């Protein structure tokens, strides 16, 4: 897939799997999916916590905002709900 497809947000995933254990990537995917986005490629402007690199704030599709803490929010019991897409 070309780099342009990634940059314009029109990339379509080739496969999807569920997260098995918590990682930094799973934490950020959890935050995007809570706000109604598939992953980082669907969202344009990302505000991150400088200490952890986790997503700080996301605007949902209905124009309301989700604000996240610096610490982990995706609990172990929620990890299996996170979708991990491969492009």
TrEMBL record:
Q: Which InterPro entries match?
A: Meiosis-expressed_gene_1 (IPR020186)
Q: Which family does it belong to?
A: Belongs to the MEIG1 family.
Gene encoding this polypeptide? MEIG1
Q: Which Pfam families match?
A: Meiosis_expr
**Residue spans crossing the bilayer:** none
Task: Outline what the protein does.
Answer: Essential for spermiogenesis.
Query: What name does this protein carry?
Result: Meiosis expressed gene 1 protein homolog
Its GO CC terms are: nucleus
- Can you tell which superkingdom this protein's organism belongs to? Eukaryota
